[in-house]
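Moderator note: this is an archived Q&A kept for reference. The question asked for a predicted structure of one protein chain; the sequence and the answer are reproduced below.
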Amino acid sequence: MLPYTLIEKKQAGKALTREEWEFFIFGFLSKEIPDYQMSAMLMAIYFQGLEDDEISNLIDIVIKSGKRIHFKNKDIFYADKHSTGGVGDKISLILAPLAAATGKVRVPMISGRALGHSGGTLDKLESIPGFRTNLTLEEFQKQTDKIGCALIGQTDDICPADRALYALRDVTATVRSIPLICISILSKKIAEGIQGLVLDVKSGNGAFMQKPEDAELLAKKLKYFGEANGLKVTPVITDMNQPLGQAVGNWLEVREAIDVLHGGGPQCVRDLSLLLTEEMILLANPQETRQSIRRELETLLDNDIAFNKFLEIAEAQGGDISVLKNPDSYPKSAYVAEVTADEAGTITAIDTYGLGLDAIDLGAGRRKYTDTIDPKAGMLVYVSIGDKISSGDLVVTLFSDNEEAITIKAAEIGERFVLNHTL
């Protein structure tokens, strides 16, 4: 087999056999197939798609490129949640400790880094000084069983093929591919040893699946392939036509998550955290009522029990919990710019995708996978679709250590908000 002929085959829309995919994936991992040929293959997949058998084979191949976790306690329900990505999505930071605090599930969560315009849970966790996301698999399993949750990134042992592909997809504009998203999400989730998976499938201009029908297809495919591999799967389609909450950027989102874990924060962030955690508990205990689960979860948030579980997780992973207890002590950005409205009107639309790219320019994300993230960088967005604003009202506050970037963005970012001038 030759990489060139296999790329041609996929460019022609033909299915590759399992043996051909094994040759290509393992050849890429061993560096016998270079990045540029894998990039060409990713682009061929992006345009031509994959058949169901190819997706099934690739999920299995990616899992078998590394190790698979097997938790020993068969009486415990292990579950995870995954978001398909958006702007300001900090739900995992709330859901993981909240679910673990119930004692009804254990949450072994393997998260990813920023992908395209979308922030990454791993980068948010690493904005907490000292927080270790590189636990060994043994440490990961022990902590999950001891305190109910562990939050890590992909190790060298778990789906190394996906780790390499993930980085390449991010910089080759091949993220918005339903087959590739299915393979990436499910290989990691199956490998981490869970029984249940809640999927937050984003739809809207700030999501990878911008059209509702694409989000519905992705949700259907994820459920199908997840259940084919023995998982209980609940997909939930949620809105990403505007940022989720106010905070966009790594530490800013951690701080907003802390507010929610204290019983406050933006209502939309609290509501979605409760909904997705509720779905996770239902996977473990389908006999429970939604009303009883919701009451319990609200109590855990409002009485700081979920926040204390977050502290326990962070401390176990080396995090400096003093900044979680006192967020005002966190280092400040060198430059801050407040952007106000030039005119009055009603917000009718927000270019959420554009705001994600703006956050990258401020330092909160990567243009290439070797870039370093500034954990402080980002923005607070104070308006939502439907809000009435007056001239001079505060719309966005920008944070960055890059003076040129913040100056440019302060002048441009108002274009992300569409106004109807008839109040």
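Archived answer notes: The mean pLDDT is 95.
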